Amino acid sequence: MRAGSWRRATDMYLKSLTLRGFKSFASSTTMVFEPGITCVVGPNGSGKSNVVDALAWVMGEQGAKSLRGGKMEDVIFAGTSGRAPLGRAEVLLTIDNSDGALPIDYTEVTISRTMFRSGGSEYAINGSPARLLDVQELLSDSGIGREMHVIVGQGQLDSILQATPETRRGFIEEAAGVLKHRKRKEKAERKLESTEGNLHRLNDLLSEIRRQLKPLGRQAEVARKAAVVQAEVRDAKARLFADDLFQARESLASEMEAEAELKRRRLELEAQLDKARAEEQVAEAASRDALPRLSAAQETWYALAGLAERVSSTATIAADRLRNAESITTEERPGRDPEAIEREAAEVQAAQEQLATEVEALGGALAAATEHRHQAEAAHAEAEQQYAAQHRAIADRREGLARLVGEVNTLRTRAEAAGSEIERLTQARAQAEERGEEARRGFALLETRLAGLSAGESGLDAAYEAAADTQAGAEAALEQLHDAFRAATAERGALAARAEALAVGLSQRDGSSALLAAGDQLDGLLGSVAALITVEAGDQAAIAAALGAAADAVAVTGVDAAVQVFDHLKAEDLGRAGMLLGGGTADPSDWPTLPAQARWAVDSISCSDDLRGPLHRLLFKVAVVDDLAAARSVVDRLPEVTAVTTDGDLLSSWFASGGSSAKPSVIEVRAAIDETTAKLDAAQAESERLRFAVAEATEKVEQARAATEAALARLHESDAEYAAVAEEAAVLNQAATAAQGEAGRLAAAADAAVAARDHALANLAELERRLELAEAQTELSEADPTERDHRADLARAARAAEMDSRLALRTAEERARALADRVNGLNRAAQAERDARAQAAARREQLRREAETAASVLQAAQWLAARIVDSRALAELERDRAQAARAATETELAAVRQRGRELARAFEGMVDTVHRDELARAQQQMKIEALAERALSELGLDAETLLADYGPEVVVPVLLSPEGIPYADDERPEPVAYQRGEQEKRLRGAERDLAVLGKVNPLALEEFEALSERHTFLAEQLVDLRKSREDLVDIINDVDARVQEVFAEAYADVEAAFADAFSRLFPGGEGRLVLTEPDQWLTTGVEVEARPAGKKVKRLSLLSGGERSLVAVAFLVALFKARPSPFYILDEVEAALDDVNLSRLLEIYQELRKDSQLLVITHQKRTMEIADALYGVTMRSDGVTTVISQRLRES
Hints:
This protein is α/β, with parallel strands linked by helices.
């Protein structure tokens, strides 16, 4: 459609509107628009306002009531009596954007919205999926906001006047484009609210940190004082440990001297015990050899006893059968002779045959009687008819032949007229059938075409569904990949945080950490022991418990490196540190063999060869087991072995440690760091893989979406073609149905005419016969019934004879059936008697044979019983001899076992003595190792270093004055000799001083420094947040100022435009806009005052309906002129106006189309006359709206 050229302020306009399944637009309908005024006309209810609803809906309308519906699904075509409902509604609006009025890089913008009956809704901009917010933001800069003041529907004029002042302000703001500034302000206010919350939380956190700093500073001061006292405690405790270790070693040396004599005595008892056990084995073998003989003799005796019982039973059974056979008689079975029975049956059968001949003769007689009855009844009926005809002829003669002749002539005329009608109806029926056949042929062709289209549409449906399923599957796969990527990213972050936390926990706070930090300054420093060794999974806790303090030590190459490290620690005052000296060898070949449930601890460690030797010494005869029960079993079996469980419990015959600990060891932490690092690498790789997979899946989704849209477009084209063909087929089908109905009616009328003609002809024949009789009949007074009565008597006699013949035949047949049944019964009785006699003879022969067999069996059983008695006597003698031999071997075995038990008791006593001595030595050894372990765990000193540096022979330096003040290096007195009592007193004093200090936090110094740094950092963050709050407040103030400026300018323009429009629509009247709060430009509302000419009222509620409509139109026109929009949609705005006011409004329409495009729904002829394009809308008979015409005006 093309219209005249228009010079406009902007080139943006509505280009086309396509509706599919929207309300009454069931078929795809496209309306093409051009700049200027386009009118949509049509009768009430044809669907004109649905065009306005479609425009509002596609531009984002969310209120179902605004669309004249109860719920949003009501916009989908609901179906009619002749058309099924649709499953979706779709509207596409194309806007020409050649001037770039819309903020998008396209010269043509197509906005589409699709609603599914399931409730889902989809938006798209130029085919790309979009959100409702995207559509609203796209249109907001063009003066088209959420209120949609550019669309004026039915009944909205009065609602504008009844709106609140704030709502009217919203119309002005929307027209002025204030919406984007409002959104910016709302976003800034949300950020400001979040910043305020962060400020409150940060102030609370700073207050809490300041509250913690004071007590933590006091704790740090106490920790500095406690370090000096703890050094005194350590020195005294080390010297007491060294004294205890020296005394325990001296006691162990004296106990080892008595071990040789006990070993010799134990070897002698072991030899005697072995000899006694060998003799016992010989006696047991002799006893076992005697047992099979006794068992065989007993089994033989029992077998013969059972056989005797079976033979006795067999003889008894044979004797019984022999007695039964002797009692058999040879008499014949009593009963009737079968031959006599058969003779009687033959006699009865002969009588039956004779009776059958009689039955046949009676059947012939019955047939003759029946034929005679039929003839007699026919003669009687004929006589009856003649008698009745005579009666009617006489009656007709009496009534007059003239009337009978008149009836005959009338019937003849009717028959001729019926013939003519039949011929006319037959011709009309043939013509109707011909028209119906022609319509059916056309319908069949269209039906074939529809079937092809339906098959094609099913293929399109399948293609669209397949494409939709593919798209859904791709989107689901993409969503799964997104979820997996987010999960992988979260897992990677968690693993990184865990690795960092574990690394922080691994940092040591003694001299070891300082040594590791200064590794490049020291020669021979290998690194942390925990980092240099690798422990098998699950054994970390066990190895950490076995190593003790050595797990936290630092590995060096040898003694020279250790001395250098000591010098460095003392020179830098870095504290103390344990070291593992590399080098050296160890030979575990003399270690005992462990049970299956245990393994050596050194086998669970992987390390370099330099550390293998010292680790063998630290883990000397240390075994790893699963639980405490296995540990106890290993220690009981191998007292010199120390067992440690995988939970970290250590058990030996001289020392044990265990329990629970929430703090993991360094080795466990190191293993956890390695495991976490490996998982972190795997999570990183998985995250990268998922990133590429997401990119590929996104591309697949885009391809699937494009395929779905293409399939949907093809389906829409097929729907339109199918609808057109279906409509044409419906017309032809209706014509065929009408022709068929007409042919049926004509056929029924022809059949009725034929029936009437046949009836008339039958009556005519009857009347003609009556007329002939009446004319030939002489004058008789009555008819003669003699012949009729005679024929009736003959018919009654024939019926009686037939009944007698039938009774005689039935009696003879019953007698014949009775004789046949008797013949069959006699034959069966004769056969049964013969069968019974044969069975009796066979039974007698069987009993005779069984008697002969029983006699033979009885004789053999008696002979076998005598032999069995002799065999049982021999078996009993053999059994007694075997029992005597078994008793002799049992007596000898008991004596040998007694001697063995006595030697075993003596050996057990010796073993107990040796075990007690070994246990005592083991306890002493365990005490020594426990002391060494305590020294290593509490002081970080091994046993040899402890004795060398703190033994009883080493002098004791004086570190503190009697007042508890440390001496300076140049003021320290001479060392004194070791005295245990003095050292115990010294230890108690130092521990008392330490107790006076109270609970000491050893990490207070580091925690105080860390907390101070955190306080400084949070204070800086607080300053930044306050600066951000000030910036957000400035942004809000700027937005408010901009909104106030834009609204003030727009209001001034609308106010002036309203006064001008009101004066044109109400000549001589006065109208103006008034602010409710003139001093508050951000919140003020807008009131409308209107006073038509000749009236003093200003309240809108006192105006007439037409005046109210004109005031609303004036307000809208003021908005349109003050802030023009590219287009306006007006739905029957002028419906309530008279001709004068309509003329004024049409003048304004002419002015508006210079800057805007107008789409007007109207019934007014004068409005149609000013239109540049005209669309006619109508409602078809099937309830579907269609555009049936369009009128153009070229300029």
